[in-house]
Fold each of these.
Amino acid sequence: MAADERDTASKTTPHAAAIDFSAFRDPHLVRKLVEHIRETVGSREINLMEVCGTHTVSIGRYGFRSILPRNLHLLSGPGCPVCVTANRDIDRAVALARVPGVTIATFGDMVRVPGSTSSLAAEKAAGHDVRVVYSPLDAVELAAAEPERQVVFMGVGFETTTPAIAASILEADQRGLDNFSVFCVHKTTPAALRAIADDPETAIDGFILPGHVSTITGLAPYRFLPEEFGIPGVVTGFEPVDVLEGIARLAELVVAGTPAVENAYRRGVSDEGNPVARQLVDEVFEPCDAVWRGLGELPSSGLAIRPEFARHDASRRFEVAVEPTREPAGCRCGDVLRGVIAPTACPLFDRACTPETPVGPCMVSSEGSCAAYWRFRDGA
Amino acid sequence: MPTQPDTVLLGHGSGGQMMKRIIDDVFYEAFGSPELLAGNDAGVAALDPTGRLAMSTDSFVVTPRFFPGGDIGRLAVCGTVNDVATSGARPRYLSCGFILEEGLPLADLRRICASMAEAAREAGVTIITGDTKVVERGGADGLYINTAGVGEVPEGVELSGAACRPGDVVLVSGTLGDHGIAIMSQREGLAFGTTIESDAAPLNHLIAAVLEAAPHTRCFRDPTRGGLASTLNEFASASAVSIEVDEDAVPVRPEVRGACEMLGYDVFQVANEGKMVAVVPAEEADAALAAMRASRYGENAAIIGRVGEPFEGGRAPVRVRTAWGATRVLDMLVGEQLPRIC
């Protein structure tokens, strides 16, 4: 039994990094699941959207498009935090980077995303202080180590990352680090799903729901999908067998016409999520309207720092003039993020827009749909 | 006697007494070959008269300078030895140029030089000339090392990345990703507990053994920055062929695989410093594999793929076949995945 093998492996390997993935990569099981999906789907045209960027990458890396039925369409959704960040917010980060004494700290992908006329990478090359960190807590340490600098952490991401941002603000607050603030462009997933489900241009039959985000949110925030829109959703993980199990179950729900939200990732996600993390987020943030690339302004889809932490809120602390927003001509990242087109249908894809010379953010982030399609294109 | 400084000072690059002292005490002490000790501006040494010379140079800026399984010095020797050896040449002589930052602890420099000397001994190469420059504090990150190497190419050996032919077989000399992940695990802000060690090693003896066993070997390349993905794309492009890799056949340590999962890296794009990729004709593949496995650093060698006819229409030439029969493109890394790793 695969499960027994897994248990044995965990007993004999002392290192946390040495996780045995073999049970979730069993080729025999993968083939069986693919066959099951093929039988379930039959000749129907079915559109599934993977909400999470890591799922997009997994599907590409495992080569699933080359073995799944062609009439099962896997569309990438708005689950790459860098991709859904509006141009205006990138421009604001660029403006912040130009403020004397300010150090911008952010995640690596964010640095390369082009705004209207610049990017954080370009600002860094021009001599402004932009640093890549791996955790917001590193930015807090940076603020502690360099008290003469104003460290602004540009926070992007969904429910998975916000607890850590909240923790960093609380940490800075407790340590009295007045020179640490967060430029908060965090977003919450359900609002985007609602916008896509409600969009007459999209025709999503089922959502592959994010594994990581759901560890925090649990299943409750997705219940509106079947209840209001008749669209099923299945939470799943990221190993080959996880992804296929999620797709198989979703295909079954679509074909049976029995929309529901299900959890196919029980080893990672509990139905109620992580209330402790959610409480931490609530303590520091409050819902706000937010502008998403591709989806526009969605009510209560973002997170703003509560007034009691105003001294750690970069948008309150720094008045900056932001340049007029210009969207890149021809870029269809917005349509890609809504699942209206596949990346390959964008006229710029692999022509003007490649990972080396990205026009839109979906080609920048390693989790962006366009970058994933480009990287793992099966050449078919 | 005045106390000797314990860090590098600007004066150590002055060309005067202090520089002579650091050369005598540190570099001659570690590398003291007759050619070097002759003290001339150029090292003069003998070569076997094969008629052809292979030469390569590489600069090393890795941070941190000491890491599990090696240090910048070992890398600087192994990197150039391996580059020379990939041509089929016998590496013989190295130069080494140091750019030192003011304030570098001399103890670090000594330790790095001792490590270089040890790697050179293992590879059977001699350091015959060198150079030292000192830059002001902040002008470099501790130290940078450039090495250049020369070797003799034996008669009849004609290796080239453009020589791959459909039907050839691709081998790798051991587990992939060890170096890149070992470096990554040491990074500030990203330190994760691991026992992964860099694989930095001189592979000239392994290459010689493979050439002996598989005389029609097409080419070797060490998959350093950019990893296996870059090496295979370079071969495919230079030879106008396609290459297919069996994902499950590629040796990867479970802890490296785990770290890659955690960091979101493709192990095929992670750097190696002690691995060699070889392309050999199918009929010599078993002999090449046996020779690799019998060599030091080659015990985990494996046949990982094969060369095919070129695809039409400029489609990406390197593919990975998964255990479940799916395929995907294996592209070169775009931009940076890792910090300075070599």
Note: The CA atoms of residues 232 and 318 of chain B lie 7 Å apart.
Amino acid sequence: MDLSTLPYVLSFLLVMIGVYCVLSNRDLIKIIFGLSISGCGVNLLFVQLGYVRGASAPVPPLGATVVDPLLQAFVLTAIVIEFGLTMFMLSLAMRVFNATGDTDTRALRRLQG
Amino acid sequence: MIALPLMIVIPLTGGLVSLLTGSSRRALLCLLAGVGCSMGASSLFILRETWKGEVLIHRIGNWQVGLGLGLISDAMGSLVMLIILSLALLALVFSIDEARGRALSKLHSAVYFLVAGMNGVAMATDLFNLFVFMELSAISTCVLVAFLGGSEEIEASIKYVILSTLSGLFFLVGIVMIYDRVGSLNLGAIGMFLRQQGADAALEFAMLMVLIGIGMTSAIFPLHTWVPDAYWSAPTAVSALLSGASGKVGIYAMIRILHQSVGLESFRAAALLPWLGLATALFGSILALCQTDIKRLLAYTTISSNGFSVVLLSMQSMVGFQSLVLSIMNHATAKALLFMSAGCLVHSFSRREFGKMKGAWTLMPGICIAFVVGSVADIGGPSLGFLSKVYLFLGLIETNSIALVVLAVAILITAAAYLRVIQSMISSEPAFISPADLPILMKVPTSILTLGCIALGMAGWAILGASKTVAAQMMDRLVAITAMLGI
């Protein structure tokens, strides 16, 4: 097996595990975990696309080949955004816990789309 | 052009400053006036420059093309930003009395951030930049939806935040795959690449992902479920802003990505788009008819009108774009007006079911007239909406007669939904509760929007002429691509 496809497979797996987590769980905290796992999968995809084997870091003095710095800038931004969203979701989950004493989404069925 | 980044920087600063004011009404009004004047000036300046047919470009930090980020604005973009600004100002004034006693400065701060995000989406030339601004507006929307703090509001906010995080992740996957193929995320470069090489399987998949991400923000059919809950839960002033501006920004981003950059003919998933639009229009109107809650009804009609916009966008013809320009202007004013008059009714009756608002016509005729003006404009009665509907049918009559019939049915059902509300307003049964007095700061924005709606209708033919120039500029893909490349 070609080892170079391994990171793709890994990040695909991570995204799928996260999505499965979101769809199959009824607990808010676990749903938030699922979203974070998916986010990690996507971030991993970013990082490994920019990676070039044997290349140096994109700081002077530059080597013959450097890894793609643009993708690393992207991934930093994406991580910060995910962090903000996760914090916000956790604070909402805390509000739900304070109101119902539980983080079960089945308690949240009052709005019908 | 320095005016372009100002449209993002000013509301961001306003958002930070309003957190410092500590809910003093006078300080918030002063801030509002300051932000309004400075943004209004730069927005009008952008409009004046783009009206000459130019596309304004700003390269952030003067980075070379392909490395740095850019902002552009054409005539349509500046129109969208003007709509965002005016609706946001009216909504902020409206919210001062609506959300009395709550942490008003936080509400205002979130609205300012939302405005910054939406303006960013309207100007971004880079897919990643667009994603960042989309997330900025999504987070501020979540905060606004949860603002009233009851358990229903929290539930709506949770639904929205989970859906938007997931679709944001899909969008990111699409972005990564496009970057892998094209080697750039500049929308102009992507457009050039796709036109020369066409889309392979990976790019097809990536475009589908992008479509999911952007379809969430503009509430396209399978991804519309968050809208009724969110609009129902948010303070009405915010629902007016979300309905009038946020959906339109999503549609404008779709035009930017799917028409101006990628081109609908270059990937296969685009063939789904008109049908999704039709389904959105029809489902939205049918579900609106089933509602008993006035804000929920308006939310469903918003979904329906977004469906109309998607059908128009997928026509990719001059007539279609002209109708799109007209309908965006019309819907923005009409929907905001409807939500604000509904907010006034909800405020004075302290009920949300319109069945309980009997006798409203005799008690508060002004607000009811505002509601009627809004609904007539929205369904395309004698107003700007009429012209946009005429052009819609002119465009469809030759190309897609099924769509024509479906949309006509959707309009009729929407009209029936509005009639149900108006019927219970005029029914003479005495009200059980005497309505509370409306504060002046809620009346003023509603009357301004009513007058604006009527004025747009009166100036319809003049606007029709202007819409031709705007649509022609929007249609011209080559100009858009060179502008996005920053050349």
Note: The helical segments of chain A are 6-24, 28-50, 69-100.
